[in-house]
Amino acid sequence: MKKLLRSIFAASLTLAAFSQVSATTQEPAAQWFNIIDSKTTSGDIATSVDVAADGCVYWLGTYGSTESLPTVMFNGTDLFDGALYNAGNSVNNNFTLIKTSPSGEKLWTVYSNCGDFASNSGFCAATADGGVVAVSKVRHTDGMLSDNINLVDASDTDCPVEWSCERRFYRILVTKISADGLIEWNRLIDCATSSATADPDTFWADCFNLGGGAVDESGNIYIALNYRSTLSIPASDGSTVSLSPVNCESWNGDPQAAAGDFLLLALDSNGYYRNNLQLDGSCAVSYCQSVLAQGSSLYIQGYAKASPSGSQLRAASFVLTPSEVFSPIIIKADTNLSVDWAKCFPGEQVGGKSAFQSPNMALVNGSLYFTGQYNLKICDSDNTALSVEATQGTLREGFIIKLDPSNGDWLAARNSRDDDWNKPSAVAKTGLTGYSGVVPDPTDENKIYVYGYVMNANVGVFLRSYKAENLVADLPDGQYNIITGGGVPSFQCAAFDSAGAALYICARGNKAFNLMPDLTTPALTTWGVLTARFDLPNKATGIDNIADNVGAELPTEYYTLQGIRVDRPTSPGIYICRKGASVSKQLIR
């Protein structure tokens, strides 16, 4: 609901009866940055970021600790001490959720000091009440099996998750946190650590892959999974619901092996089992990777690989036919998980390679955009002449596919090296590249921005402008390298705030970053995470004065973009003006 409300709010900004001139921001511009890192030389991964209805931002990640180097830092200042882990060169990964204001001020932190949280796994999603749900993959810190997993809330209160065991294994932890940073509840979802038919000495420590997820406008929680043994999910009546996969009969317990089933798990707003969506039929492996919630609709993304003898899957009545390499799947359903349509896009190897990773979806101006990183060829199942293909099989490239959200029809596609992106030209077409997401161009509804990265310090994290109709690049000027430096930088995650035309980005690196146009971070001595806000080019209404005779019958209220009410704007800047039911964005000069 909060994303829908903010989109409606942004669309409803109207021109008030002031003397006015137009003003347009011409290029993306960094407003601020924060650096989150530990004193360890590894770990430190940003997992997920989301924007709440009031414009505040939730940043979820995992940051490393050891017994000798326990401290996680925020802008060089001690933030908390994680688990006191002591096992060679490894680190413990600590749950870290930070809430900031839209202006970058840290409001509070929730963290763990016992428990090892898997990096690049799970998500956070803001809820309509201003709080947040965090979903994590967690096991005990090595050497601390007799202790409970422990989270510390914003009031510095320990919130233990009762769990002791004899051997380390992963479970799913679902946590609801209030807008004030207080933990409201935790739910644990179990995955069986052995099979009834397996050798009794066999122990499976890692039986699922946890992807992304979403929270809908009613607070229901959706979790994307690939699972390889029986899941046990708590229900609201105190019972347990069990789900079992079918495509893992030959799985030997190796977490790196391709096995298991696609599963979208739905929980209610209290974290209890609600329903689920799985695929019928057999295949080599299938994954559910991400979910996008928009109103009463869900857009669900995953992939499958066929068995050597071929495979045919079904999502409800819709037939999906994957190839023997990565074949993306996109499904549209309602919040009761009734399927409206489902598509499988068969994959083909390019240069003997067939990798596919970092998928993402976005709904922008009535179109569904699917992005990611690959070195294969993806075809439309209904018309194989429609495809997007990597130019080589070595380094991975970015792709974007535009679909009709009403039926999944393929409308257009583009590869990251299809166009003459040349800032700088030496690496724009040769480096490992990912297309990570799509956001609207606030100045022109006929254009979009694609954000992503080239793993090269001279290009780094970028925005590229495309014509929305056909995904033709907006050359020569529609390219911005917004985060450079950072050593060997990589994009981590992002969230777009439509009301403020702001893009919140996480990037990872081990040296100082440069942010467009003129911000530079302190030098990082180990790997750390940059979090930053970029304001996109936007049209604002400029006013020279505030007329006293406008709508005198209704009181006028003014707010900063951070939601702080002011009696009457006196300093230059952009303000929100509310008069009755009318809301406008105004530039005071």
Question: Which short descriptors sum up this protein?
Answer:
single chain; 589 residues; mainly beta; 7-stranded antiparallel sheet; 6-stranded mixed sheet; 2 helices; 2% helix; 51% strand; globular; disordered N terminus
Task: Give an overview in words.
- Helices cover about 0% and strands about 50% of the residues.
- By secondary structure, it is mostly beta strands.
- The strands form 10 sheets. Strands 9, 10, 11, 14, 15, 18 and 19 form a 7-stranded antiparallel sheet that branches. A 6-stranded mixed sheet has the order 1-44-48-47-45-46, with no helix packed on it. It has a 6-stranded antiparallel sheet with strand order 6-5-2-43-40-39.
- A hairpin with a 2-residue loop joins strand 47 and strand 48 (about 580-589).
- It is globular, with a radius of gyration of 24 Å.
Concise summary:
By secondary structure, this protein is mostly beta strands. Strand 41 (513-515) and strand 42 form a beta hairpin. The longest helix is centred in the first third of the chain and has 10 residues, at 2-11.
